[in-house]
Amino acid sequence: MTAHTFLGLTIPILLQLLDRYIHITLSRNMSLLLSAPILAAIVYTAIAGAYLLVIPLLVLFYFKARWYKTGSLERVFLCFLAFFFFPGLLLLSPFFNFRPEARQI
Question: How far from the centroid of its chain's Cα atoms is residue 91's Cα?
């Protein structure tokens, strides 16, 4: 069985080096203490921001670009995106109103 390597180093050695680097960096700069609860709060905030704001914004613009040009499978995919990111779409919907383009007669 072969060990996974990156730049000639095995994964456990890379983790040890990364752990040492973090401890050295934190010990040199005591004003930046990232304890586990603070780091967890930062990670949860980033995930929540991505789920509630960033990805739904991208989904809205994808809807605008593709809504009248989709096939059946892509329409199913669009409905899945609307279902999965519904809380974020609900938050952003008062600020974005994509009306259909005016028809040319």
Answer: 17
Torsion, Cα 50 51 55 60, to 10 degrees, reads -140
The strand pair at 5-6 and 9-10 is best described as antiparallel
DSSP string across 6-17: ETTEEHHHHHHH
- Kindly tell me if the per-residue pLDDT of 52 is higher than 90: yes
Instruction: Please state, for a pLDDT cut of 70, what percent of the chain lies above it.
Output: 68
What does the pLDDT average to over 91-105? 82
* CA dihedral of 75, 77, 81, 83, whole degrees rounded to 10: 80
